[in-house]
Amino acid sequence: MRSGRLTALALVVALVALGATACTPVPAAVEGPLPSGSGSVSPSLSPSPTAPPVDPAVALDVCNQASAASVAVTKIFNDQIAAIEQAAAHNDQAVMVAAAETINTQFVGVATAFRQLAALPIPAELKTVLTDIATALTQMSSLAYTGTTVDIRKKLVDFAAALTKTCTPASASPSPTV
After folding, report:
1. Quick one: how far is CA 8 from the chain centroid?
2. How far apart, in whole angstroms, are the C-alpha atoms of residue 59 and residue 45?
3. Nearest-angstrom CA–CA distance, 172 and 56
4. Rg (CA), the chain
């Protein structure tokens, strides 16, 4: 399919044009206060002897923020890929670069926010999911990333599913009736 190759080519051209713009401020889709008692959250470089207690209210807030960010970044990605496809049809390099820059900014911003959220007093499984997603988003924003648009879309869906699975409390299954 020719348009699929053009889309991938346009994304690669636009990402290459970005150069070192990967370190940009947190995007609007993920801005807002992080749930914490202090203004700054930074993970400790040395492991603590015991894990901090889990705060259920913070965990719920983290889940809500992470889920909203996941939905927002997926929508932005899909909208910007559509813009890249349209720009590629008109050979509009400036629009392709701007759209790719928007995607990159969102990925980097959400990855940063997820790392900050993972440092809060939340369950270990949620920390792992947030950290894994942050790592994947960082890789996907790299110029060295070789995945396709289809690969990225699948990962974004997988991220949402992992958050849903981790953030949804296990419902009590009914006892079998005899």
Report:
1. 20
2. 22
3. 18
4. 19
Which band of pLDDT confidence, cut at 50, 70 and 90, is reported for residue 164? very high
Compute the distance between CA of residue 118 and CA of residue 127 in angstroms, rounded to an integer: 5
DSSP line for 42-95: ---SS--SSPPPP-HHHHHHHHHHHHHHHHHHHHHHHHHHHHHHHHHHTT-HHH
CA dist 99 and 175 (Å) reads 52
**pLDDT value of position 8:** 37
The domain limits of the chain are 7-17+54-167
Query: 110, 137 in Cβ contact below 8 A?
Result: yes
Are 37 and 120 contacting, i.e. CB atoms less than 8 angstroms apart? no
Q: Token pair of 46, please?
A: 């040395």
User: What is the rounded CA–CA span in Å between residue 15 and residue 85?
Assistant: 14
